[in-house]
Amino acid sequence: MPVITCIEDLRQIYERRVPRMFYDYVETGSWTGHTFRKNTSDFQDIYLRQKVAVDLSDRSTTSKMIGQDVSMPIALAPVGMTGMQHADGEIKAAKAAEKFGVPYTLSTMSICSIEDVAENTSKPFWFQLYVMRDEKFLKAIIERAKAAKCSALVLTLDLQILGQRHKDLKNGLSAPPKPTLKNMINLATKWRWGLGMLGTKRREFRNIVGHVDGISDPAKLMEWTSTQFDPRLDWNAVQKIKKMWGGPLILKGIMDVEDAKRAVASGADAIIVSNHGGRQLDGALSAIRALPDILEAVGDKIEVHIDSGIRSGQDVLKAIAMGAKGTYIGRAYIYGLGAMGEQGVTTALEVMHKELDLSMAFCGHKHLSEVTRDILMVPKGFSGDWE
Questions:
Q1: Which pLDDT score, from 0 to 100, does residue 219 have?
Q2: Is 166 marked active-site?
Q3: Is residue 384 part of a domain?
Q4: In 55-147, which ranges are E strands?
Q5: Which domain covers residue 74, as residue numbers?
Q6: At 134, which CATH number?
Q7: Is residue 386, in this structure, part of any structural domain at all?
Q8: Of 40-49, 82-91, 223-232, 373-382, which range is least confident?
Q9: Which of 1, 3, 2, 16 is nearest to 335 (CA)?
Q10: Which among 108, 147, 149, 248 could bridge 130 via Cys, Cβ 3.0 to 4.6 Å?
Q11: pLDDT of residue 330
Q12: 341's torsion region: left (phi>0), alpha (psi -120 to 50) or beta?
């Protein structure tokens, strides 16, 4: 087994082992990919302040996210088609997260269903909801999440319409892959992935297949999906979904101060400052640059989390020091999953935990709850001075 020292090590193995269309699905943004790249590079503009001669024994990274105890303030973000990155991917990722003591968020567009994950885990996980035009399906999937005892609903607000991702269009992205000559040639080089897929029955969107009338084959499924994201989603719909759900609600996709204030007024329990990993509006600010103004606007009225661009424990530390109460990783754990299955997800979490713990200590703290913005050196005008 190769020595893994950072998330980039996992990404390199992942690229070798996973079919190109699914690698490109994860490792790309919309349009030019500008926001996708800035999400990560902007973290590097923030520096950490080193402190010495501090008692660093008995360190702890434990925290809480929406009142739930976590071993570190990291949740596994919802990623569509995770089960195409590795056979039974959602189940494997959820099991790794459960063992590590961090939340796992299952996507509506998962390969393994809500029931599949619930049957293979022992603790509650979170469920991410895309609002569909089909109200019967919408109500049913919320009820299924309740029946599976999901402990939070993550409502995605920034995918009413689908951003254009050039590589997905060129690759003819589908689940399972279409048997084109190009795909077959590429799949022939990914024998490890192929053997895993042959050994599972989960190769399609199981949250949808069998739960929507008239969906009997992959072509019809992709057609249904592409027309179902509801462009009418507004704050009134958020209120209705909150009432329908009745439990902890997290709103994902907040990048604007006024939207953050509306989220507070909606009664949500938390917001996620997120630009969908740079996969929707290209040219938007990075999430870490948007975070300070949103934190200033909402104060302690709502719990503020962040995703988009987090690739290391140091990124997590910087976000927490700025004032976020939680962070989410998507690509970072998918690299591990595609590289080595459940063990790869665990390895990704171990790498990030070690980076978080050691960086916290070098900054003079032994408990994450003590960390403040004082450990950061943030460039003047980092959030921007815009007209």
A1: 63
A2: no
A3: no
A4: 63-65, 68-70, 74-76, 105-106, 126-129
A5: 7-377
A6: 3.20.20.70
A7: no
A8: 223-232
A9: 16
A10: 108
A11: 97
A12: left
Give residue-wise pLDDT tens across range 220-270.
Answer: 776 777 778 889 999 999 999 999 999 999 999 999 999 999 999 999 999
- The rounded distance, in Å, linking the Cα atoms of 384 and 387 is 10
Backbone angles phi, psi at 25, to 5 degrees: -60, -40
Per the CB < 8 A criterion, the answer to whether 368 and 62 are in contact is yes
Does a structural domain hold residue 387? no
Handedness of CA 11, 310, 114, 342 (dihedral sign): positive
| Token pair in block for residue 264 | 């507070």
Question: What are 91-150's pLDDT values in tens digits?
Answer: 999 999 999 999 999 999 999 999 999 999 999 999 999 998 889 999 999 999 999 999
Quote the CA–CA distance of 179 and 218 in Å, as a whole number. 12
Which listed residue (34, 211, 276, 353) is catalytic? Answer: 276
* pLDDT for position 218: 64
Q: Verify cis geometry, omega within 30 degrees of 0, for the bond prior to 177.
A: no
- Best CA proximity match to 359, nearest among 324, 321, 331: 321
E-only strand ranges, the chain = 47-48, 63-65, 68-70, 74-76, 105-106, 126-129, 152-156, 249-254, 270-273, 303-306, 326-329, 376-377
Is 46 inside any structural domain?
A: yes
pTM of the model: 0.95
Assign 217 a pLDDT band (cuts: 50, 70, 90): low
Task: Report the first-to-last Cα separation within the chain, whole angstroms.
Answer: 53
Domain count, the chain: 1
